[in-house]
Amino acid sequence: MFFNPKALLLGATALFFSGLVSAQNGTAQEGSCDGGPWKTPIYTGAEAGTAFCHTKYQDGVVMSGIEVWSAKKNIEAIQFYYSDGSNSGTIGKIDKEKEHMRLDWDPASDGLSQVKMWADKKGESLGRIYLRTKNGQELNLGKEGDTDPVETQVQSGMLLGASGRADGMVNGLSLLFLGSKVDKITLSDVVFDETPEELNKRMQGLQMTILDYADHTNAMQDSNETFTFGKTETRTQSKEYSTTQTHTLGFTHSVEISGKLMGIGMSASNELSYSYANAKTETSSTQTTVSLNYVSATMLKPGQRVFCRATAMFGQYKGDYTSTMNVELEDGTVWKFRADGTMEQIAWSQASSKCQSDPFPADAAVPAPGGSAPPSNSTAPAARRALPFLA
């Protein structure tokens, strides 16, 4: 078999090309291909054409698809697809297209397991490309047999970017893979869009609700009665941090969140309010069950009437935050990028009860969790309605 010396040099010996590829003079660039969380990439092809770099790793976005157009003797054009729904645009030029294929995968559950590339016989361009996913899908385009294949080590299998050279064709290509498996993920520098002061000022999501109500009269004519108003009820509290990137990147690890975190807490006066607290958690979601206990005993004379009401404060919040996601790899590399997310929390205060001889005053109806406000002409006692909390 005949081998062109230039093709051999550029293909089989796998020249390292990362230093040649920069964002300053190429096609439309998403980011820099210098110094990312990957091993030194292997370049296959020629040094002709204009340098390009396509990656969004600095935003925590990975690649999820590749589309290739091939002519009779080489790869004409290529396009990459990202996990955020965007794409690189066409690299090269679709002119004498002979074959066309597109390969997509879900980075949350799949990745690339094998990559081979060949330089063309003349040493002018990329001649052929072969890709295989972990789930067994394949892309195989280009001219076979001109040079020996150059196999790229896929490392983790997660494709972060691509660099190379192209003009009227794809002259050469390097694929950039996350250099090692993920060992640990942490969120730091969490900053919420709103402050506790702003939320407390307008009592965002905070309300006093009615747990129970009683209207009781001692029906006995010649003896007193002790009326006991009490119960134990259970409610669920939860707090969850979520980020788009953890799903997109396919992380199955728990995310450690630490630092000055905002949330709803209970004060000494049994009221809920927003505040900061230094906290650390090993999971992005927590859920607990709380018991709301209340009891009141009232001595009633014959014919005496009493009105009782049990209340607890309920808080519900959903707010956005920005943070830094730190992805620690098994090889010691740390991949950092900004991660936007949402925190959702449901909280309850302790319960309290009160009994009195007069009906409770009518309060503006506020929907209780899972319920709805009574209509304006409702004859339901005011004590059965949810109450607005007044600071």
Automatic annotation (TrEMBL):
The keyword Signal applies. Residues 45-172 form the Jacalin-type lectin domain. Keywords: Signal. This is Jacalin-type lectin domain-containing protein. It comes from Lentithecium fluviatile CBS 122367. Residues 1-23 form the signal peptide. CDD domains: PFM_jacalin-like. Gene3D superfamilies: Jacalin-like lectin domain, Proaerolysin, chain A, domain 3.
